[in-house]
């Protein structure tokens, strides 16, 4: 939904629903999205953040009638797609995901072709009134990055996609943007790393983009900023103990577009105790990675999964705090033995309310299927409604919960 006054389009990620194939995503789109719209935006168009796997892209690209059917459904139900989550290439529900979520990474033709397909679909199904964005992976899983050549290979594929986006806009008049999402344990993890990559690797590659897109270098410089930016997932950066307002200011100062400001809250054990460790075990049996950062005596230690951090505490108990990449409902602050990083969501949207940072706002709590039963407040549609009401309240300043 358009919040008006330049405050952006707000919705929730349909990554929370079944959607590994187009049949599954189409069913979720027709089952859940209308129910959420009826609750939060009954009289106004409702924005849709669409999850498209590589399988779904293959189906839609190969079947013009299915694309037409999708667009007709959106129009008939007062819905519009403003962003696509193209981070998970393959299956994301029902089985172990873990590190596989980053594959294929940005060194590969498969990742580039998939992303170009998403762009072509968006140019056709999204309304002219929005510049749709594509959420994508943080280049590569950090342990796989073997050196400078690996990063160069990622950058070349990104430039191929940007050249495609430049050509797409030239042909259709539709501007589609690519939004790279930093994430714990990936090549792009911190805001500082992201700023360094954009300013020292991507932006200096304007001559290569000029060659690929057949445009002057002077135009390529602007095209990079026009078409490539970031998803700022507040939960990811809070897990790394970043000062969220400071991180957002760094991106703005570097001229890096925030194409999506993503509301996500993570687990925060402000003081690790035996009681907190026992309660946290409810979050360790999951199909997703739960990257965890420990802060102890002013030092930080990173763990790939929460259970690794809990094991480290058991071996060497001591005063410390943990933040974990496990998305929990953004309207929750107190989880009993520990808290959430909801405070970071509040800080970011306070900044956005004063000076809008992004045209696309989104809630991404995709973990409904693996949440402990005590955190499932009503059915999934009600849970999404509560999150949307909460974030809309933050943006509009009325504190609605």
Secondary structure layout plus pairing:
Blueprint: E1 9-12, H1 22-31, H2 33-40, E2 46-51, H3 54-61, H4 64-76, E3 79-85, H5 109-125, E4 133-136, H6 148-172, E5 177-180, H7 191-202, H8 206-213, H9 217-227, E6 228-233, H10 234-239, H11 244-253, E7 258-263, E8 265-269, H12 274-280, E9 292-296, E10 299-303, H13 306-315, E11 321-328, E12 339-340, H14 342-354, E13 360-363, H15 380-396
Parallel strand pairs: 1-13, 2-3, 3-4, 4-5, 5-6, 6-7, 7-13
Antiparallel strand pairs: 8-11, 8-12, 9-10, 9-11
Strand content: 15-25%
Largest sheet: 8 strands, parallel
Spatial shape: globular
- Give the SSE string: EHHEHHEHEHEHHHEHHEEHEEHEEHEH
Give the % helix: 40-55%
Our Rg estimate from Cα atoms comes to 20 Å
Distance, first to last CA? 17 Å
In what order do the strands lie side by side in the largest sheet? 1-13-7-6-5-4-3-2
The CATH superfamily is: Divalent-metal-dependent TIM barrel enzymes
Q: What is the SS-derived class?
A: alpha/beta
